[in-house]
C-alpha cells in the first residue's frame, strides 16, 4: 500500500508505520505519543465510545470503516471498561474524516478531547477503505501509531519499533485489563430517558460470580437486569475463591490478548470449576479459555472479526442472529473433543462461535450477546444461562426470547 495524504498537503502530524515498513501519513487526533499495537478494522456504524473502551481491544488500534466518527461526542455513560481512569481499551484509533463536531443531547465532551484524556492516540484523514482492503488481503498487521503536533518523526526508528514488536500472539493482557480486585456490580441496563437504574443485590434471586479478564460493563448490567447479584473477582482468583462465595453460577468474561497465554493461569481454575455442577457461561475470551480447559485448541485468525453486523447460526434453534463481534483468536472447531458440542458458527467464514458440554450446564459463545454496541438478537443467551440457574433451583424455565 502506498502512503497517501488525501486530506491535506500540510505536514503530517501522525503516522501509522506497519511492521513491513509501510508508512501512512495523516493528521493527528487525540493523545500524542507513540505506541505499538495490532491494527484491526471495525465495521460497526455506531457505538464508537463503547468500542474504544472495550477492554478486549487492549493492544489494538481500531480502524473505523464508517467514515464519520464523533457526531455524538463523548459522554460518561457509554463506557465499557470497569476502571476508565486507567486506560483499558483500544490504544489507538484511525478515522477517515476529521472528527465531526458533537451534536447530541448526551454529549459532554468533544471526542478529540475525550481521546486525549483517555490517552488514545489517533490518526485521521487516511483512506480507511484501502487500509481495510489491505488488512483483508494480508491479515491484521503489527504497527506503530505516532502523533506529534510538530510532525517530527524518526521514521526509521518507528519502522524498527513496529518490526520488533512481538505481537498479540503469546501475550497475556488479561492481567492488565482485569480490575484486579473483588467488587460488587450494582448497575442495571440503560433505559431510554432514565439512564441506569441501581440494582438491589440483597433482593436478587441469583448470585453470579464473574471472573474478570477485562469484562464489559454491559454484560454485568444484563445480569443485574435479570435479577442477579453480581460479584466480580480478579483474573487471578482461584477456584476456592469462587466456591467460597457459594454462587448459583459462574461467568467467564471477555478480555484482550491471546487465550493460550491467559489460559496458563485461568485454565486450571476453569477446569476445577467444570468438575462442580455449577452452571458456567463464557463470552469471547471466556469462551476460548473454556475451550482450552476442555482440551480444544485456539488459533490466531487472519483478520479477526470486529463489527456489529456479523451473522451467526445457533444450531440449538436453527435461528440466525446478527451479532456484535470482537475477536482475533478463535477456537479451532476440529479440535473440540468428544462430549463438547459446537452450538454456534459464523456464517461469514464457518468459524466456531459457541460450545457446550453435553449433559452439563456449561456453555459459551465467541460473539458478544451483550452488544454495546450492536444488535440485541443474542440477548437470549443470558436468559439461556438464567434458565440453567433456575433449573438447578427447580424453577420453571423462562421463555428464551422475552
Ligand atoms: N472480545 C474478546 O474477549 C476477545 C478475545 C481475544 N482477546 C481475541 O481477540 O480473540
TrEMBL record:
Residues the record marks as active site: 284 (nucleophile), 368, 370
Q: Which CDD domains match?
A: GATase1_CPSase
- GO term, biological process aspect, one: 'de novo' UMP biosynthetic process
Q: Which Pfam families match?
A: CPSase_sm_chain, GATase
The pathway where this protein functions is: Amino-acid biosynthesis; L-arginine biosynthesis; carbamoyl phosphate from bicarbonate: step 1/1; Pyrimidine metabolism; UMP biosynthesis via de novo pathway; (S)-dihydroorotate from bicarbonate: step 1/3
User: Per its UniProt record, what PROSITE patterns does this chain match?
Assistant: GATASE_TYPE_1
Q: What are the residue boundaries of the Carbamoyl-phosphate synthase small subunit N-terminal domain, all occurrences included?
A: 12-146
- Detail which positions bind L-glutamine: 56, 255, 257, 285, 288, 326, 328-329
Q: What class of enzyme is it?
A: ligase
Q: Which InterPro entries match?
A: Anth_synth/Amidotransfase, CarbamoylP_synth_ssu, CarbamoylP_synth_ssu_N, CarbP_synth_ssu_N_sf, Class_I_gatase-like, CPSase_GATase1, GATASE
Q: E.C. number, please?
A: 6.3.5.5
Query: What catalytic reaction does the record list?
Result: hydrogencarbonate + L-glutamine + 2 ATP + H2O = carbamoyl phosphate + L-glutamate + 2 ADP + phosphate + 2 H(+); L-glutamine + H2O = L-glutamate + NH4(+)
User: Which Gene Ontology molecular-function terms are recorded?
Assistant: ATP binding; carbamoyl-phosphate synthase (glutamine-hydrolyzing) activity
Alphabetical UniProt keywords: Amino-acid biosynthesis, Arginine biosynthesis, ATP-binding, Glutamine amidotransferase, Ligase, Nucleotide-binding, Pyrimidine biosynthesis
Residue segments, region CPSase: 1-206
Its biological function? Answer: Small subunit of the glutamine-dependent carbamoyl phosphate synthetase (CPSase). CPSase catalyzes the formation of carbamoyl phosphate from the ammonia moiety of glutamine, carbonate, and phosphate donated by ATP, constituting the first step of 2 biosynthetic pathways, one leading to arginine and/or urea and the other to pyrimidine nucleotides. The small subunit (glutamine amidotransferase) binds and cleaves glutamine to supply the large subunit with the substrate ammonia.
Q: Which HAMAP family match?
A: CPSase_S_chain
Family, as annotated: Belongs to the CarA family.
What is the annotated quaternary arrangement, including any partners?
Composed of two chains; the small (or glutamine) chain promotes the hydrolysis of glutamine to ammonia, which is used by the large (or ammonia) chain to synthesize carbamoyl phosphate. Tetramer of heterodimers (alpha,beta)4.
The molecule here is called Carbamoyl phosphate synthase small chain
The primary gene name is: carA
Amino acid at each position: 500500500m502506498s502512503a497517501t495524504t488525501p486530506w491535506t498537503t500540510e505536514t503530517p502530524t501522525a503516522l501509522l508505520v506497519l511492521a513491513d515498513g509501510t508508512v501512512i501519513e495523516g493528521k493527528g487526533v487525540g493523545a500524542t505519543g507513540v505506541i505499538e499495537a495490532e491494527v484491526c478494522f471495525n465495521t460497526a456504524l455506531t457505538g464508537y465510545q463503547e468500542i474504544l473502551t472495550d477492554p478486549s481491544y487492549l493492544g489494538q488500534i481500531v480502524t473505523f470503516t464508517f467514515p464519520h466518527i464523533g457526531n455524538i461526542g463523548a459522554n460518561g455513560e457509554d463506557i465499557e471498561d470497569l476502571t476508565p481512569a486507567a486506560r483499558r481499551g483500544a490504544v489507538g484509533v484511525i478515522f477517515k474524516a476529521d472528527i465531526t463536531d458533537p451534536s447530541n443531547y448526551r454529549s459532554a465532551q468533544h471526542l478529540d478531547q475525550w481521546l486525549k484524556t483517555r490517552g488514545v492516540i489517533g490518526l485521521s484523514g487516511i483512506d480507511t477503505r484501502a487500509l481495510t482492503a489491505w488488512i483483508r488481503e494480508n491479515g491484521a498487521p503489527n504497527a506503530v501509531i505516532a502523533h506529534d503536533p510538530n510532525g517530527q518523526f524518526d521514521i526509521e526508528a518507528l519502522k524498527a519499533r513496529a518490526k520488533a514488536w512481538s505481537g498479540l500472539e503469546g501475550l497475556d493482557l488479561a492481567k492488565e485489563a482485569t480490575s484486579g480486585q473483588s467488587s460488587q456490580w450494582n448497575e442495571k441496563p440503560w433505559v431510554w430517558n432514565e439512564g441506569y437504574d441501581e440494582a438491589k443485590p440483597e433482593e436478587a434471586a441469583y448470585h453470579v460470580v464473574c471472573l474478570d479478564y477485562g469484562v464489559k460493563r454491559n454484560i454485568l448490567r444484563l445480569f443485574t437486569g435479570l435479577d442477579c447479584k453480581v460479584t466480580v473477582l480478579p483474573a487471578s482468583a482461584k477456584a476456592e475463591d469462587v466456591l467460597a462465595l457459594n454462587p448459583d453460577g459462574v461467568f467467564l468474561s471477555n478480555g484482550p490478548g491471546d487465550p493460550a497465554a491467559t489460559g496458563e493461569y485461568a485454565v486450571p481454575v476453569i477446569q476445577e470449576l467444570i468438575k462442580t455442577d455449577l452452571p458456567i457461561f463464557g463470552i469471547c475470551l471466556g469462551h476460548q479459555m473454556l475451550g482450552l480447559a476442555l482440551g480444544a485448541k485456539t488459533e490466531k485468525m487472519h483478520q479477526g472479526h470486529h463489527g456489529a453486523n456479523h451473522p451467526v447460526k445457533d444450531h440449538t434453534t436453527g435461528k440466525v442472529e446478527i451479532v456484535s463481534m470482537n475477536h482475533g483468536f478463535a477456537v479451532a472447531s476440529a479440535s473440540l473433543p468428544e462430549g463438547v458440542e459446537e452450538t454456534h458458527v459464523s456464517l461469514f467464514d464457518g468459524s466456531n462461535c459457541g460450545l457446550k458440554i453435553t449433559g452439563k450446564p456449561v456453555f459459551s459463545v465467541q460473539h458478544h450477546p451483550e452488544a454495546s454496541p450492536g444488535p440485541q438478537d443474542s440477548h437470549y443467551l443470558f436468559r439461556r444461562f438464567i434458565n440453567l440457574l433456575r433449573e438447578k433451583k427447580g424453577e420453571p424455565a423462562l421463555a428464551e426470547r422475552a
